[in-house]
Amino acid sequence: MDHIGEVIESSTKGFVARSPRVGESPSFGSFVKTDSSPVVYGLVYEIITQSSEPGRRPTAYDMSMDELKREQPQIFELLKTEFHVLTLAHTDSKKLNFTLSPLPPPIHSFIYECTDKEKKELSEQDFFLRTIVSSSNVPVDDLLISSLYHASTVRKDDSEYIVRMGKSLSRYFKDDYERLSSILRRVLY
Amino acid sequence: MLGERRHFVDEFGEKIKLAQSELRNKSKNWEELSRKVDKSKTSWLLAGISSPLNITSPLPKRPSNYTAISSDGSQIFPDRHEALPCYLINISSIILNYGDNSGANLSSDPVLFYKEQDRFTLWDGKKIPANSEVISHRRTLMEFERLLDLVKETSGRENIISISDGTLILWRLEGTPSDFKSGVLEPFLNIMEELKNRRVPIVGYISSPGSADVINVLRLGLCPEKVSYCNQCPYTELPKLPCAQVEGLTDNNLFSRVLKQGERSAVFRSSSRILESYGDHHIYFFYINIGEEIARVEIPKWVAEDNKLLTLAHTLVYDQAKKGKGYPVAIAEAHEQAVVKGKDRNFFFDLIKESMVKADFNVTISRKGLSKRVPGV
What's the pLDDT at A40? Predict the structure, then answer.
């Protein structure tokens, strides 16, 4: 399996990875992992494509994507796509730990998409929802919805699972009915 | 000041009008003017002419697939106030493939020069330290060498053009001793020969040119002498020389009123002295209206005389300039890849000092270098 990113910034709470190809990235809310030891698991919560050179800004060309590729091929060499990952868990002697990793993944570690088995394990308990809710600087509500979407897709839309996670959310947002209702309605939409 | 400015603008307008009508008039009997150009000895550069002066060629259709190649260079000059006498030249490589199988390769390769043979050069039989002039010539040569390498890399592609930033006339070599001159010129002409054999046009692109080679031909046309010798000018007693009527204009001023967007001028021959050594690669040029401005495009003789290559150069230069919003995108990217900034320079010398310290060398820099680094109050 090809890697889908390379760590270029690393911290305990999360990391930033650069995509090998411009415009391509794991989707928002998807589960990813590093190839480091310990393996660090996380959720993609921000994807940015921008100029790779400070001081140069992309400008409008008024061309379709196909025309741009034929007539302005250099611009794709001057852009970069990066994605930010929120750390959810790490492995400790083969066991999955739903805590921050003792050490962040080394810079230049490769990022891979999680297998279906790993996605199920990571989302079996509601820990990932708790991590999202208690994180700052991430789009909390949308990340809850998208990660639940990925978690339920891998379970072939198991309704019992959705109900179980919905109950957890209702505990986190017991003081904010409007917000809970908005999230749940969008999960079920 | 404004009064003077008004006078200048009025006078400029009159000169331009005269230059335009002269361009038309002298085109009728251009062969005679061409002979006068060949025989006269003027104090200014004259464009050689081999067609009417005022002909314009419309923009030819662009082939849908083509490849633009460019290279540029930048350097860190040696600094005697630094720890080691060495210098660096960074040469960029740009390959832009358009149409089917499009794609771009943008990169640069820095080369460190520190060996004895790098740091000294033969100058009139003497060994002298490589100064900024020597390094600049070395850099120019490396740019053309890179262009040829890139052409070889893309040999499978159709419609290749190599574009160089600035002139193809190495006039700075005029006045350098013959041993140094041939050390640059010979390899340069060998590269031109290889490009000629591969039928890949090379162009030198000059944005907003200040040259007046064609205006100077009009000045010659205004001179009443049959053959003009400026050093024996019989009109110096007159309040104004006959040739001064269009003096001060540039070819850019003239052709911006003659050429419509996409059109190119006639092809002219440059008369720079250094070109006497160019042989089959003598440099010719034309002006082109790329919309945003007039550019001067220099080409070797074998492109000027090959209609297919000339047409290709015309259309591809225009397309490159359009893509780059007024300046050829290949040259602009070549510059971006090659450029070495002040910060890079400091980093470079810091890296050298760090390596020396790691290898247990004593690092000494001059008091001047030190004072710049740690200025006191």
Answer: 96
